[in-house]
Design goal:
229 residues; alpha/beta; Rossmann fold; 5-stranded mixed beta barrel; globular; binds S-adenosyl-L-homocysteine
């Protein structure tokens, strides 16, 4: 199967590239794409750069240009749900854009006309992830991920996003990748390992735990690839 694995930052894909060994590098539209074979699959791996716009470009490229039939996202996130601690994993069951606001017209936060507030992730992939977690003896939370073009380091904003969208974690790329895959009918799975609590200390925590949390996420994604037939 042709599988895309994407992250937003170099640190998120470095552990993946290490695991796959040899790869072919292609540059396209300002990004680097790494093609490799692993566990009987053709992989295309890339980091998009941060935010919804760049992640949309990369996800679209992986599907349209590289022919990916399934997309896995590996990365880090800020926690909303207090059960999520640094290094813990969350698999998105649905995603939304917390910064999309046309409430002036009476729409709910995150709503897109002709679209919806939430995009659901692929249930079969989430179910598979739960089995992989059991196999690895790891806790994997299923939950809602809220995406926006802001690094959240503020308990008030964190609480607002949590209450408004009943979200468990927040980051800056998941919902845009979900939009692309949903529109193109390609199953996707968004995994995040917690790097910070999206609070006053978020930037320090992020810098300290980006690498270790990115590795947690990447290790899990590798096991997912191994479990896909
Ligand atoms: N340190 C980086 C910027 C990181 S932005 C630099 O200066 O270049 C944060 C990245 O991690 C995004 O890709 C986002 O998806 C994720 N993330 C982790 N914690 C987050 C938080 N508290 N708020 C928003 N995004 C967060």
């Amino acid at each position: 199967m042709n599988i895309a694995i994407m992250g937003a930052m170099p640190e998120e894909i470095a552990p993946l590239l290490e695991r796959v060994g040899e790869y072919k590098l292609t540059e396209f539209a300002g990004n680097k794409y790494y093609e490799a074979t692993y566990a009987g699959h053709n992989l295309v791996i890339a980091y998009s750069k941060i935010g919804k716009v760049f992640s949309t470009l990369t996800a679209t490229t992986m599907l349209q240009h590289f022919g990916a039939e399934l997309l896995l996202f590996s990365g880090v996130a800020g926690a909303i749900n207090s059960k999520l601690k640094i290094g813990n994993l969350i698999a998105a069951t649905k995603l939304c854009q917390h910064d999309l606001d046309i409430t002036a017209f009476g729409h709910p936060h995150g709503f897109v006309p002709e679209g919806s507030v939430f995009i659901e992730a692929d249930k079969a992939l989430v179910a598979k992830a739960m089995l992989v977690a059991k196999d690895m003896d790891l806790e994997l939370m299923e939950g809602t991920i809220a995406t926006g073009d802001q690094f959240i380091a503020d308990p008030v904003k964190n609480k607002w996003i949590g209450e408004t969208f009943k979200a468990d974690a927040l980051e800056m790329e998941g919902a845009s990748v979900a939009c692309v895959c949903n529109a193109m009918n390609v199953p996707f799975f968004i995994l995040r390992a917690i790097s910070d609590a999206a609070d006053m200390d978020a930037s320090f925590s992020f810098d300290e735990f980006l690498e270790s949390s990115a590795i947690e996420s990447a290790n899990f994604i590798i096991k997912m690839v191994e479990s896909i037939e």
